[in-house]
Amino acid sequence: MLRLEDITIGELGATNLTVAAGECIGLHGTSGSGKTRLLRAIADLEAHGGQAYADGAAQNEVKAHEWRRRVMLLPSESQWWQDRVGQHFDNKTVAFDKLGFEDDVVNWQISRCSSGEKQRLAILRLLSHQPRVLLLDEPSANLDETNTERVEVLIKQYLEQFHAAAIWVSHDLRQLERVASRQFQIIDDQVSQIA
Amino acid sequence: MNNSLIYLTSVDLIITALLILLLISLSSYLKLGVALQLTIAAIRTTVQLLLVGLILEAVFRQAQLHWTVLIAAVMLTVAAFEVLARQKLKLKRVWGFSISALAMLISSFLITVLALVVVIDADPWYTPRYAIPLLGMLLGNTMTGIALGIDRLVQTAWQQRAIIEQRLMLGEKDVDAIRDITRDAMRAGMIPIINAMAAAGIVSLPGMMTGQILAGSPPVEAVKYQILIMFTVTAGTGFGVIAILQIITRRMFDERERLRFDRLLLKSS
Description:
The complex is a heterodimer of chains A (195) and B (269). Chain A is an alpha/beta fold and 195 residues long.
């Protein structure tokens, strides 16, 4: 599903890895080790070396915005530019209840949402675009236990239902053990498998 | 007294200069702190305008194409620098100057040539008596709109760069991700001239028209010229701002639709 060939960005050495359809891999590393930049390179938001493939298509063979529709990055801090929540969703039916919202959340004002609410809404917004590959940068960093579990279940269901792939970045190794089939860590500017 | 010019004598100018002197002494007596600036500005305006007057008289006597072109080129260069100087975020120098010059070229040069050839129909079309004042009016008035448009676009995009990137992450095209900001910048560039057109004659009598009437033109003739100026300034500002916003947004994103302020701004800003 997702294949990275000699991806290099910043200090990070060549990264090679493959994520199968329906699979989620975990990525771990101290802050500043380059996890976020690696995800940005895979989403083609920053100039980088090497090549990435999704569904067999090479990154530079498809238009950049089409690539990002397939390979979608969830940043650790989501951004919102309209007044209300619903304006950020393109009229698609979104299962807001899966992350503990009522349907009237579409009328909520963005300025009144807590960081945790924004984080959950950002996950729902990401999934509403139905990407083939999810690049999740600390998706549950601001969430309580209940909502963290909801997020983990929702992502798992999504990957199974759409045969999508995911890279899950987290500081929490125990969480990665729950959600990911394989674990990777960035040590000395190199991505290596640890489990 | 139709069409007869009332020549201003030196005495007339001295009387108004005395007014300024009085103001300078009063503000220095009250320690208002503007006396020095006022003095310098008053001297500058006298010297600069007298020089321009002398140059213009010489050029008008010649009526040769190359003199007109030379003066026009100097005016354009100064205008482009002025546009660049009004930016809060500093653009890369060579590139910034080139796009400012291009925008002024579109907004003022081409529109002036069009107005001279098609509308005013002077013979020859580059007659400096028409060409240079018209170009000056256009440069002076479109410069504001273009400087404001660029400033708004670059500043807002810089402040909202996280939002632009978020929209790119969600698979939006680069032009869509920045569309709201471009629209806002277009409005910022056009508002001054739109307001000027709406208020003309009611709130304010435009300076050029007033000058012509004082110099003895029949009011309706002066009005016709004023409308001509307003329309050419509006068209010039509009086309200039549209062109410059297109060029800058193209430069802001690379071929992979990534946000690239490093291609736009000096490193220090």
